[in-house]
Automatic annotation (TrEMBL):
<dbReference type="Pfam" id="PF04186">
    <property type="entry name" value="FxsA"/>
</dbReference>
<keyword id="KW-1133">Transmembrane helix</keyword>
<feature type="region of interest" description="Disordered">
    <location>
        <begin position="128"/>
        <end position="150"/>
    </location>
</feature>
<dbReference type="GO" id="GO:0016020">
    <property type="term" value="C:membrane"/>
</dbReference>
<feature type="transmembrane region" description="Helical">
    <location>
        <begin position="12"/>
        <end position="44"/>
    </location>
</feature>
<dbReference type="InterPro" id="IPR007313">
    <property type="entry name" value="FxsA"/>
</dbReference>
<protein>
    <submittedName>
        <fullName>FxsA family protein</fullName>
    </submittedName>
</protein>
<feature type="transmembrane region" description="Helical">
    <location>
        <begin position="73"/>
        <end position="98"/>
    </location>
</feature>
<keyword id="KW-0472">Membrane</keyword>
<keyword id="KW-0812">Transmembrane</keyword>
Length: 150
């Protein structure tokens, strides 16, 4: 599924770059791609530090930092899209770096994964921890995890 998307996006990028190059000139197009890369790098750095600060704050308050992790994933994917030359990937990458649109991407990720989990007759994500002490016969297993419900 990813390979056809990769091919289609690459062909669209080539078409858009050629069209913009024909309209404003080749040098101006390359300069515009470089400018968007610098703007994207600045936003990536700023939003990355902001997300790290949020994650550290939630960890220091003994809370789970799941939302900060998802924001980090969206920021990393947006950074990769910004490093890819082209106007379509730069636009999607810039939207991923803006906080209001990032929450939209995170909600879409959660919706898709929640449907997969709950349609398979599972009740949530479970992470089992292993104990360092030997197991006793009458001791019950402790299961730690997160649960969400729409």
């Amino acid at each position: 599924m990813i390979f056809p998307i990769f091919i289609v996006v690459t062909l669209l990028e080539i078409y858009v770059l050629a069209s913009v190059g024909a309209a404003i000139g080749g040098f101006s197009t390359v300069l515009l791609v470089i400018i968007t890369a610098f703007i994207g790098f600045f936003l990536l750095k700023q939003q990355g530090y902001s997300t790290i600060a949020k994650a550290q704050n939630t960890i220091s308050n003994s809370q789970t930092s799941t939302l900060a992790r998802l924001e980090g994933v969206v920021i990393v994917v947006s950074g990769v899209l910004l490093l890819t030359p082209g106007f379509i990937t730069d636009t999607i990458g810039l939207f991923g770096l803006l906080p209001f649109s990032r929450s939209y991407f995170i909600n879409r990720i959660l919706e898709k994964n929640a449907k997969k989990i709950f349609n398979n007759n599972h009740s949530g994500f479970i992470h089992k921890t292993q104990k360092t002490q030997p197991k006793q016969r009458n001791e019950k297993n402790t299961i730690e995890g997160e649960f969400w419900e729409d």
